[in-house]
Amino acid sequence: MFSQKDRDLLRGLAGKLSEIANLPIQEERKELWQRSNDLDPVRPMIWLTELPWKECQADMPEIRNQCDESLHWVENFLRYRIFCHKHLELDQVEVPYFPIHMECKNIGYGVEIVEETLDQDKSSIQSHHYEPAIKGMEDIEKILFPNLEVDVEGNERTFNFIDELFGDLLPPKLIGTQGIHFTIWDQIVRWTGVTEALMDMVMRPDYIHALMRRATDVTLKQMDQLEDAGIIYTSTPKDRIGSGAAGYTKELPGTGNKTPQKVDSFMDTWGFATAQIFGDVSPAMHEEFAINYEKEILSRCGLNYYGCCEKLHDRMNVIAKIPRLRKISVSPWCDVGIAAEKAEERYVFSHKPNPAVVANDNFSLVEAEEDLRDRLNKSFNQGLPCEVILKDTSTIKSNVKRPIEWSKMAMRLAKEFEK
Fold first, then answer.
1. Is the entire prediction scored with pTM above 0.85?
2. How does DSSP assign 270-319, residue by residue?
3. What is the CATH number of domain 4-416?
């Protein structure tokens, strides 16, 4: 299945990552995340995700693939994690195992998506055009209820493959569902078209309600079947909660474990929802067509994260109705001062600085620092825990030094705010 050369190379990388994962700094970072998520922060937390790795590979030989193409999924995971530890100043917590996420059959929504894609130069990001698959009431039944089946044989094959490859150095860990992501509006616009969905909320509200009712009921059924299958695992250790960062907390089980643990229900996990196109919709319509349905899903989770790229500062009273809301996304289009002023509870502000900082022709670290300092002054200094996440970086102009320098700046600034 693999050559001795590839085996030796991957074992070397796995050994390095294992050493990194067992450094004392990992426990220190975990403690910082836990305190931030439990609303007792030491300082703002720093993380970076979604780098355009193809560009990074072109500019950084140490993360270029050397193994057979069939092994790139393993090699990339190892190389990228080692790269982040070595070059980026982040609060990323490395863990001493290789995650294998359980595959399931007959789950999802069943709607066939017809799309055209357009590559964006060297970026892994593509432009998409979708042909509507759901156009009216008669099409709603295309959204299918699940009949979940765990792919036991496939999961075991993957586990055994990694175990044979380097399990003595970095053991594989089978992991089930770690919380729920109810990002149904990201799906709906693929089924209907963006303009069509926005217009139909005004012109055909009964149709949109029927669409959301069906999708919500299907998701609730998925959650039931996942719980019945016994494959719900703690949300930590995990890099991402929702569109944010790590979810370590004493308020959910498994915080002290180095590997995810099986739990009985979603109430022991983080939940996440977002309705990104509602940045162009009134708060009242946001509540009517999104929040009222999302609450049904999130009410089954122990803690919740809300939002991604939509602005939320003008609807803080609406998202406050989400049960056990703990983190909210503060996008580049969000007015931080208004959001902080109108926050009805203490939330973790999950800041998303504009990724254009590393994508513009002229890279200005000074402007990036001014923006971030302003954000933290208006939130962290007002008693709100903060995490800062550079994400959606579709390009770095083939210059990997940009995210490296950004991380150093962000960490230096975070430590200035340390209590």
1. yes
2. EEEE--GGGGGS-HHHHIIIIIHHHHHHHTTSSEEEE-SSS--GGGHHHH
3. 3.20.20.210
